[in-house]
Design goal:
3-stranded antiparallel beta sheet, 174 residues, single chain, alpha+beta, 8 strands, 24% helix
């Protein structure tokens, strides 16, 4: 293999950590059985487990028409790695580190189309910011943690897209 001590498996299309599992040497046989039986949907994503998610949390950077509107830091409950609130995770508005912002902007720049909104999720590690997900289809945007201007910006961007007066692709409005 890849030399990973642990990995995360999850359905390629999913939400809210549904069917997401941490797999170690001790749980490998159980995970293989769950995949073979269909208890975990296929196709699957397999990612190396990044332990910093437990100690540093997971960042979500929210962009509207290419402009960063707000960022949140999500932390898992003690003993877990998943950050969802229904699993005991917490969310708080925090300014993301510069490396996270530049990595998220780079991820947006390579998308085939400029999305109306996007949420880039990742973890700060000693080796830099690792992007875990690029969410452009119905992500939670954490608007309750955003400044009021972010909701206004989202509404303006949505109306512009509907009316056909959206900002040209590749020219974010900050």
């Amino acid at each position: 293999g890849h030399g990973w001590r642990a990995c995360v498996i999850k359905p390629e299309i999913g939400a809210s950590a549904h069917e997401t599992r941490l797999v170690t040497g001790d749980t490998l046989a159980e995970a293989a059985t769950a995949i073979a039986s269909g208890a975990i949907r296929r196709p699957l994503l397999v990612q190396p487990f990044v332990d910093e998610i437990r100690t540093r949390g997971e960042w979500s950077l929210v962009f509207i028409e290419g402009s960063l509107t707000h960022t949140v830091l999500k932390a898992p409950a003690a003993g877990d790695f998943r950050v969802q609130s229904y699993l005991g995770g917490t969310v708080r508005a925090e300014p993301a580190p510069p490396g996270a912002v530049s990595a998220a902007r780079a991820a947006l720049a390579v998308l085939p189309e400029s999305p109306l909104y996007a949420r880039i999720d990742g973890v700060e590690t000693s080796g830099g910011f690792l992007i875990m997900e690029v969410e452009v289809i119905e992500p939670a945007l954490f608007l309750t943690h955003a400044p009021p201007a972010a909701a206004v910006r989202f509404a303006e961007a949505l109306l512009a897209r509907i009316s056909g007066t959206a900002t040209a692709v590749g020219t974010p409005r900050d």
